[in-house]
């Protein structure tokens, strides 16, 4: 019989960021002191996938994992940025006056795009010097890109006294991703990164752009939320994500509604009969997953047993697998293994085609469920997953 994996190896926590080391790196790169340090978290979406660009509801939490930026304001239009995890830490230098839609700026597009978006709104924009570090896993569907754009937006806003509300800070991040980085994301990722609160989940109405903070105290309920990174990388900017977005828009057009959010759940079956099979499946996922967000929110507000969220997570995963077709074998393996090992529910989270699975488990079962997922992945020939417990945390802010 195989021996259990070491619990400390199976369930771990990403290494914290050393703020002093980042400030020292800034001084080394730019021979100057930073004006301050800012942080913005990644996010994990509890339920409601691909509903954000359809005007529907989503339910994310901000993570304890952050992108941290040491930043100094410049008096010209030059932006210099370096990241410990990109391009061997080399400094990328760009001029804000040269930035245009469709340009190729690599990973720095998520940074410089914020300045471009601010200028489009008529805000005063000067250059910045930036040094970055992050412990948000990249390519895992945990919004490392939103953490990057939002920490930049928060720092720029603070340093230039733009006095923006949280929603506008988030929107600057989205514009950077959509129009300069070329990633067609909705607004959920950025809102979650900017507006997160400790021990709360956010029910976001993506059409009205309103946020309801809901109690999300898993520890008090004896529960834990495992984030199981399949280490199967995905990309929001690829053709598959764009196709799902196009299919959703086409389905709404054929049904004569503004967005799929407007399709009534009560008459869904008869309404969808008007669509060809592919669009029918795509629309069914969007409408039902948005409804599952509302069901989950009611559970969180009711004080009911949070374990009742589990079946909704399972249903969401089945919908993404069968109707939206955005899961992959490594993801399905992890979801099935988590449920078989005792998780109350599990689902893929994020844009799809890789990334992470989340599993709602009793605290005492976390290591056993994680161990089962590692074994299942290895036996199926998939990459060994990395697993940590998610903690609902605060949003983007100045930390020094």
UniProtKB/TrEMBL annotation:
Gene Ontology biological-process entries: galactose metabolic process
Domain GHMP kinase N-terminal: 113-197
PROSITE patterns per the UniProt record, alphabetical: GALACTOKINASE, GHMP_KINASES_ATP
Entry protein name: Galactokinase
Species name: Flexivirga endophytica
Superkingdom per UniProt: Bacteria
EC number: 2.7.1.6
GO CC annotations on file: cytosol
Record-annotated GHMP kinase C-terminal domain positions: 304-373
């Amino acid at each position: 019989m195989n021996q259990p994996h070491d619990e400390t190896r199976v369930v771990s926590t990403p290494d914290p960021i050393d703020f002093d080391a980042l400030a020292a790196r800034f001084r080394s790169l730019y021979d100057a002191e930073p004006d301050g340090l800012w942080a913005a978290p990644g996010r994990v979406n509890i339920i409601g996938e691909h509903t954000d660009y359809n005007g529907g509801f989503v339910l994310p939490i901000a993570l304890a994992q952050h992108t941290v930026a040491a930043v100094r304001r410049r008096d010209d239009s030059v932006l210099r940025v370096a990241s410990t995890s990109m391009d061997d830490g080399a400094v990328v230098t760009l001029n804000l006056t040269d930035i245009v839609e469709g340009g190729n700026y690599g990973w720095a597009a998520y940074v410089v795009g914020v300045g471009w978006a601010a200028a489009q709104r008529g805000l005063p924009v000067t250059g910045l010097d930036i040094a970055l570090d992050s412990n948000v896993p990249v390519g895992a569907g945990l919004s490392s890109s939103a953490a990057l754009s939002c920490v930049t937006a928060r720092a720029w806003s603070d340093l230039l006294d733009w006095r923006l509300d949280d929603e506008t800070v988030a929107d600057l991040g989205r514009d950077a991703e959509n129009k300069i980085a070329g990633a067609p994301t909705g607004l959920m990722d950025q809102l979650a990164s900017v507006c997160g609160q400790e021990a709360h989940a956010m029910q976001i109405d993506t059409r009205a752009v309103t946020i309801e903070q809901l109690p999300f105290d898993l520890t008090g309920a004896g529960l834990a939320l495992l984030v199981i990174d399949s280490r199967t990388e995905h990309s929001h900017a690829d053709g598959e994500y764009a196709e799902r977005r196009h299919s959703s828009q086409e389905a709404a057009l054929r049904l004569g509604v503004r967005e799929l959010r407007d399709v009534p759940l009560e008459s869904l079956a008869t309404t969808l009969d008007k669509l060809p099979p592919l669009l029918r499946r795509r629309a069914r996922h969007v409408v039902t997953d948005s409804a599952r967000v509302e069901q989950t929110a009611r559970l969180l507000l009711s004080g009911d047993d949070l374990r009742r969220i589990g079946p909704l997570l399972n249903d969401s995963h089945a919908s993404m697998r069968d109707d939206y077709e955005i899961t992959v074998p490594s993801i399905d393996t992890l979801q099935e293994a988590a449920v078989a090992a005792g998780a109350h529910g599990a689902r893929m989270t994020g844009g799809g085609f890789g990334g992470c699975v989340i599993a709602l488990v009793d605290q005492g079962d976390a290591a056993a469920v994680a161990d089962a997922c590692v074994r299942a992945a290895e036996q199926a020939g998939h990459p060994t997953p990395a697993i940590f417990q998610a903690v609902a945390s605060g949003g983007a802010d100045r930390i020094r």
